[in-house]
Amino acid sequence: MHLFCYTSYFKDELEEKIRKLSSENEDTFSVKFLISGVSEENSNDQETALEYGLNAHSKFLIRVNEKSAAGEVPQVVDILKNALAEDAVIVLWENEKLIY
User: Fold this and answer.
1) CB-based contact 32:65 (threshold 8 Å)
2) Which CATH number belongs to the domain containing residue 45 in this structure?
3) Which of 7, 8, 11, 51 stands the most exposed, by the fewest C-beta atoms within 10 Å?
4) Which of 80, 72, 12, 71 is nearest to 40 (CA)?
5) Could you give the number of structural domains in the chain?
6) pLDDT digits 0-9 by tens, 49-80
7) Count of CB atoms within 10 A of residue 16's CB?
8) The Cα angle at residue 88 between residues 84 and 92, in degrees rounded to 5
9) Residue 8 belongs to what domain range?
10) pLDDT at 24
């Protein structure tokens, strides 16, 4: 199970924000959910993000590492939106369904 996270931040800036977010929420992002490395958007990713109104420059994935934690996805999305700014990130479940 994966959360696809598209952001309007450029790669370097997002990497810094992810490091801070991970250290501040170590219990969540060290076992239950694992964050991938940040990558720049390609044209397909940009199209996907634009469908949801975001001009994205970078993306990362979050893998649900403990199946029992799947019910905590809404809280993870809240953490992301608080850390990255609500209008700067969209999160898609399996790259298909928008999570609010």
Assistant:
1) yes
2) 3.30.70.2920
3) 51
4) 12
5) 1
6) 999 999 999 999 999 998 899 899 999 999 99
7) 12
8) 95
9) 2-99
10) 93
pTM of the entire predicted model: 0.92
pLDDT for 74? 94
Please check the confidence at residue 16 and state whether its pLDDT lies above 90.
yes
Going by C-beta distance under 8 Å and a sequence separation of 6 or more, which residues neighbour residue 68? none
- Nearest-5° Cα angle at 63, 57 to 88: 30
**Secondary structure in 3-state letters for the chain:** CEEEEEECCCHHHHHHHHHHHHHHCHHHHHHHEEECCCEECCHHHHHHHHHCCCCCCEEEEEEECCHHHHHHHHHHHHHHHHHHCHHHEEEEECCCEEEC
**Does residue 15 have a pLDDT over 80?**
yes
- Residue 22 C-beta-side C-alpha neighbours within 13 Å: 16
Map tokens 């490395």 to a residue. 37
Cα torsion through 78, 21, 57, 93, rounded to 10: -40
